[in-house]
Structure prediction request, 857 residues.
Amino acid sequence: MRISKKIVVFVAGFCLPAIMAISYGLNAWYELRLSDLRQEMSQRAQQNIAHHLEEDLGQFEMLAQLYGVPMALLPVEQRQTLSATWHAMALSAHVSLYGVEDDGIRAFAEPSPETQVLDLDALWPDLLALDGIRTGFLLQGKQGFLACVIPLSDNRRLLMVRRVDNQLFEHYQAYSSLAGLRLATTTPSLLAQTSPQRVTLEVPSLLGDHSLLLDIELTQRDSLVQSGPATLVYLIGGISLLLLLLGYLWLRHGVVDPLKQLLRQLSRVDPTAKTYQPIRAKGTSEFMVISEQVNSLLARIFQQKERSKITLEAIAEAVILTDSWVKVIYLNPQAERLLKVKAESAVGMNLDKVFRSEPELNQSLFAFMASGTPTPMLSKVKFTSHTPRLMERSISNLKGPNNKIIGTVIVLRDITQEELLKHQLRRRANFDNVTGLLNRCAFEERLQAFAEDAQTLAICYFDLEQFKLINDSCGHNAGDAMLKMVAKAIQASLEGQGLLARLGGDEFGLALKDLGVVALAQQVKQIINAVGKQVMEHHGCHYHVGISAGVALARAPYINALELLKDADIACIAAKRKGSNQVHFYDDKDKELTYQRNAPKWAVRIAQAIEHNELLLYYQPIKALGPQGKQRMEVLLRILEPCGRILAPAQFIAAAERFKLMTDVDKEVIRKTFLWLSLHEELWADHCLSINLSANSLGAEGMVDYIIAQLERFAIPSQCICFEITETSAIQNRNRAMEMLNQLKKQGFSFALDDFGTGFASYGYLRELPVNYVKIDGCFIKSLASNAKDYAIVKSIHDVCRVMGIETVAEFVENQEIFERLKSIGINYAQGYAIGRPKSLDQYLTAPTDNVHRLMA
Prediction:
């Protein structure tokens, strides 16, 4: 139905009946409202009277307490002032005060004329029997009174009375005028007379023997609004009808006709057209706004369409749009070139005909659209043309304004170069670019799968010898050529299936399974021989390399491939110590190999111990064999495990040296020793503590500054500290060691040359080094009593040192016989288990005094 007809139906079918119904309803409502107003005013008057009546009863009782009780209790001579105040009140003209006693009722003042009609003698017995304060109404005959009784004592009461009349309730007239009132008992005839002009309230009785009713007759002050004539209502209805008719004509001219014209123009709009024709509206300003919005929307649609077209044609990916029947509706130029088809001929074709290589593509698209998933469906498609290409195909659902799927969008992206690059990166990530073998990471990853079904697994760790010579002499290109030759030689030597990898610069790893020990040894020897035969010619010179092999073997079910690789690495280090082209099988009972294997773990434990202050200091006494001098002792290092076991130095010193932690360890020992000595000032005069300095610390950058800083920090005498260095470390770092020893010598520190006689030192070095003590190595002391050669060596060392002014210390003194021989030679100091075993430095002052003097002089 058109808008104009709807307006007619609206006016004739709804507006006219509504106007008539409204007119009738207004008239009926007006009459009903008048009746409601009268009833409401009567109810409000009744509520107002009841409220004020309750307040008056309270105020009347309060008045009796404030004036009546004092006048009754005060003596006669003291009542005058209060009586004067009472008579000055206007209320006293209507209220009378009485005293109720055993012998009768007496007035306190002149009774009001209004209350003289009250028969007090008839009320006297009932009033005297009342308990507590009572306020209420009394009815004698046709006369009503308001009374309050207040007990003054057991046989005395106060009575205050006022007559009930119009003057008592004149302030109740809020909505109407008081015509008259009367107090009566409850009777049916009285209750039946209630009307909007009469208010009947039940009031409290003073004596409480029966109920009383207060009957009040009211008259309205102002007349209510009179109802108007009904003709006025009908007149209003007629005028309204005329206005509706005029409004309809105005709407038709200003709204309906311009709207019809606007709808005709909108019906001719084609959003798919290449250009758009703006619409023009007439009539109200709202239609102008609508036309402007529609024109703006059409312009944006056109711009968006052009922008999308330009974008689709400019991107490098091929884009194809289909409808819900999987028919092509658009191809961009890239899709035309890829599929070798023109857009004009492809539009309207089924997609499987465009993709001739995939006959089931249509069914896949139907299933994808039926799923309604918002996630694109990705796949890879290979196109075979002059140059084969790999394309990534993305299919997404195309939704309309009502969120209904109306087709699909297919995007094809060329990923040929990307896939080639990924392949190259994967190869570089898993394979060594020089030898083509697996790298270490890939080797460790594949080792687990390689060992899954093996009964025995052997890991061979190969390290090339003299390879650095080729790199340094001929360059890295020649070194890479030699690595390729070695890799080919190892591969050619493998008789069975194995997993071969280049683990590092000149290190190779080989995993073999299900081989016996003899066959495994033969295989490794064959590899060593094959590598040894490789000769590389460079600028007329011939180079070859050797190879050391470490082998670790395990049997099922106790195969841990990664742990075997660690064991093989440790075994290879042992093989290199034997010489070139050697093989070493890992044995878990070999303590030295066990220390090497646990070195990384101990290195971490040492770092934690330093960080958490868990290094423990021990001491071993050094006994003077001559006249008593300073008490000397050597400071030793221990680590406390979480389980409470104390670790000996042999288990962690090698790890600290391997991982360059000895400098940090030495600094911590120096700090803790200086701290302990600073807390025992009583030992400064006759004690000297020896601290070992490792080869890494000797001449290390900043070590001298650190020692001097700790000396100043703890303020101890430098004469109490002696640093022990080995002759091997002093020779290896000769220049730096000499500089460091001279600097510390100036600070007052003394020095001892430890393990003298077993290294490469000579008496010439002894002459150059500024040492105060020489500690003769224990290998000469252990057999001193039974070996004449050792005795001669020890005596010669002592004689030379004595001439040079250096005192001697004998290590590893383990029995009385050795002790006596040392005294006969003239050795200055002795150290060993016969003198005293290592103990905690914290227990030094609490230890028995004879623990360092067990051997008699």
Observations:
- The longest helix spans residues 3-73.
- Residues 188-192, 222-228, 849-857 have pLDDT under 50 and may be disordered.
- The radius of gyration is 62 Å.
- The longest strand covers residues 143-153.
